Amino acid sequence: MCSHNRTRSVIVAALLASMLDDRVVEVRSSGFGPTGLPATEAAIAAMARRGIDVSAHRSAATTEALVRRAHLILTAERTHVVTIATLEPTSFGRAMTVPEFVDRARRVGFLDHDPTIGIQAMTKGRTASAYLRSAVDEIADPTGAPLREFERATAEIERTCRDVADLLARALHRG
Q1: CA–CA gap between residue 28 and residue 67 (Å, rounded)
Q2: Is 73 helix (H, G, I), strand (E, B) or coil?
Q3: Residues 16, 167: Cα–Cα separation, whole Å
Q4: Which of 25, 63, 114, 128 could be bridged to 20 by S-S, CB 3.0 to 4.6 A?
Q5: What CATH number does the domain containing 50 carry?
Q6: Residue 3 located in a structural domain
Q7: Distances (CA, A) of 69 to 26, 108, 143, 147
Q8: For the chain, what is the largest distance between any 2 Cα atoms, rounded to a whole number of angstroms?
Q9: Range of the domain at 109
Q10: pLDDT tens, residue by residue, 87-143
Q11: Which of 66, 86, 93, 88 is nearest to 1 (CA)?
């Protein structure tokens, strides 16, 4: 999830969907802006360079029902995590920024638990006010950046998505 569901969340969802087994993991993308808008031209071009077509994407709203159904919610920014929690308070324990998920999964031993228990362990005891004051890695918004900077940001998102996909695939295919 990201602000407008036109750049970062489109890229993250497209990359994760291409890296994960869609029979095991459903990847969805949404945001907090207007609905029905296409992905940015830069996002479409960046994904096309990776052989992924997102030209049919249209922005979708982050809703209480969508959040309630999700086992894991990955966002671009920490403010998105808190906004999601205002929609569905129990989601706070399942929501993290994409880089935060990778960091916490490695530190907490996500792979040592059932995935649902591992996600809960990663966010145990966290409060919204402390979370907003904490240093949480985020995905910078490359929208409007020159092509070279946009591509550098997309490559960083891609590396982080590989880490997420690896962690999830290993956890889901254990045993």
Answers
A1: 10
A2: strand
A3: 12
A4: 25
A5: 3.40.50.2300
A6: no
A7: 11, 24, 29, 36
A8: 45
A9: 8-172
A10: 999 999 999 999 999 998 888 777 776 777 778 888 888 888 888 888 999 999 999
A11: 66
